[in-house]
Design goal:
By secondary structure, this protein is of the alpha+beta class. It is built from two helices and eight strands; from the N terminus they run αββββββαββ. The strands form three sheets. It has a three-stranded antiparallel β-sheet with strand order 1-2-3, with helices on one face. It has a three-stranded antiparallel β-sheet with strand order 4-5-6. The model has no long low-confidence stretch (mean pLDDT 88).
């Protein structure tokens, strides 16, 4: 086989490999977009879960999300007091008595148990002001 024919074959082979490479790169880009889309969906879903509200057992008209935000049934977010031993909110219980309650206990009783306020709770990151449900664990 002469040199010109070999050169032509090498050029064809190179062109074929370049086409294969372009197809592979295109597939990689498509997969990257798909992964980003799925990651975004998962993030949005997790954010949506964080926004879900549950009625607080024993405190009618009050709701709490996984982040520890407390809302009155009228939609008003309740102010939180930060004390040396954690976050607290003032609510009215079933008998309409004004009560100051630990946000940690409210999140745990609403999201980790079925309304049990007697459980002991641990903050996984050690930050007593981080009352997100993902940061709390029953002792």
């Amino acid at each position: 086989m002469d040199a010109a024919k070999k050169l032509e074959l090498l050029k064809e082979l190179k062109m074929q490999k370049n086409l294969e490479l372009e197809a592979i790169q295109s597939e990689i880009q498509r997969l990257e977009k798909e992964v980003l889309s799925k990651t975004k969906e998962k993030t949005e879903f997790h954010q949506d879960l964080d926004e879900l509200l549950k009625e607080i057992k024993g405190y009618p008209r009050f709701f709490i999300n996984r982040k520890g935000q407390v809302f009155h049934e009228a939609g008003m977010e309740m102010p939180i007091s930060q004390k040396d031993y954690g976050n607290f909110v003032t609510l009215f219980d079933e008998s309409n008595t004004k009560v100051e309650v630990s946000i940690t206990k409210l999140v745990a009783s609403s999201w980790l148990t079925d309304g049990d306020f007697s459980v002991e709770i641990k903050h996984l990151d050690g930050d007593i002001y981080n009352d997100h449900a993902d940061n709390l664990k029953l002792k």
